[in-house]
């Protein structure tokens, strides 16, 4: 049995699985089938914390992780991140680091991860010109849900 750790109100496995390498970043990536097998093997061995981000292979990593974790979604913790950079389908006049931009990003992540909630959602690489307090406000001010009419 894997040890667990408290992370705020979450209880997660002491060892988590960063999933970026399944779609890019460290040379040749495994096939989708092998990636899903490995993610599920980690779960079978007690891993309950899985990390991804919308920018990893421009949405592909979240799609893979969502597919792999769907059978036991309510038994694990998913962490994902949004990037300040505007990705395809996220263009809007207010910019990415706005109420609309963040809402668009989180709703896209919810769809790709095939879930109705994200356990840990953070900003990936905060730009120097960014106001962290404003982003924190927008992240806490909205009631996010899956909306099929919002971005990729």
Give a short synopsis of this structure.
The chain has 152 residues and is an alpha/beta fold. Helix content is 31%, strand content 15%.
**Unreliable spans:** 144-152
Number of domains: 1
The major sheet is characterized as: 4 strands, parallel
How far is the N terminus from the C terminus?
38 Å
Helix count from the secondary structure assignment: 4
CATH architecture: Alpha-Beta Barrel
Work out the strand percent: 15-25%
Q: Roughly how much helix do the residues carry, as a percent range?
A: 25-40%
The shape is globular
Rg from alpha-carbon coordinates: 15 Å
Number of strands: 6
SSE pattern: EEEHEHEHEH
Written account of the structure:
The chain is an alpha/beta fold and 152 residues long. The protein contains four helices and six strands, in the order βββαβαβαβα. Strands 3-4-5-6 form a four-stranded parallel sheet, covered by helices on one side. A two-stranded antiparallel sheet has the order 1-2. Strand 3, helix 1 (32-44) and strand 4 (49-51) form a beta-alpha-beta unit. Helix 1 (32-44) packs across helix 2.
SSE layout and pairing:
Elements lengths: L3 E4 L2 E4 L3 E2 L13 H13 L4 E3 L8 H10 L7 E6 L16 H14 L7 E4 L8 H10 L11
Parallel strand pairs: 3-4, 4-5, 5-6
Antiparallel strand pairs: 1-2
Please give a handful of descriptors for the protein shown.
152 residues, two-stranded antiparallel ribbon, globular, 4 helices, alpha/beta
